């Protein structure tokens, strides 16, 4: 009787790499959405992300951002489709429409 590993080790390697990639992607996603992470600043010293607004009322968060920045501020219900273009003059606030709470750290783009 022959062992599967001796004939075709490539399937095992591919499976392990896939599992590792999914684990790394999940860790990166959790780290980038962590509301306790430090504030990200642009080279100019301007804030580019507002993790402290996660969990706050979306309307209040929008008012806060409109006072703090000259960027266009948009509120977007979670799950809605948005364009993937990067615009340095835009901040999106993603919120849960059921609770009106910010669900993801608003950032420039």
Automatic annotation (TrEMBL):
Q: Which residues form a coiled coil?
A: none
Question: Where do the record's region annotations for Disordered lie?
Answer: 28-48
Any one Gene Ontology MF annotation carried by this entry is:
serine-type endopeptidase inhibitor activity
Q: Which UniProt keywords apply?
A: Protease inhibitor, Serine protease inhibitor, Signal
Give GO terms for biological process. Answer: response to wounding
Q: Does the keyword Signal apply?
A: yes
Q: Which family is this sequence assigned to?
A: Belongs to the protease inhibitor I13 (potato type I serine protease inhibitor) family.
- Signal peptide bounds: 1-26
Specify whether Signal is a keyword of the entry. Answer: yes
Q: What is this protein called?
A: Uncharacterized protein
Q: What is the superkingdom listed in this entry's lineage? A: Eukaryota
Task: Identify the PANTHER family for this entry.
Answer: PROTEIN, PUTATIVE, EXPRESSED-RELATED, SUBTILISIN INHIBITOR 1
Lineage, uppermost ranks = Eukaryota, Viridiplantae, Chlorophyta, core chlorophytes, Trebouxiophyceae
């Amino acid at each position: 009787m022959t062992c599967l590993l001796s004939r075709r080790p490539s399937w095992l390697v591919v499976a392990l790499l896939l599992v590792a990639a999914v684990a790394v992607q999940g860790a990166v996603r959790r780290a980038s959405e962590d509301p306790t992470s430090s504030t990200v600043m642009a080279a100019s010293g301007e804030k580019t992300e507002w993790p402290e607004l996660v969990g706050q009322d979306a309307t209040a968060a929008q008012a806060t951002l409109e006072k703090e920045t000259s960027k266009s501020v948009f509120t977007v219900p979670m799950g809605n489709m948005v364009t993937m273009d990067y615009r340095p003059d835009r901040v999106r606030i993603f919120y849960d429409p059921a609770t009106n709470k910010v669900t993801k750290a608003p950032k420039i783009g």
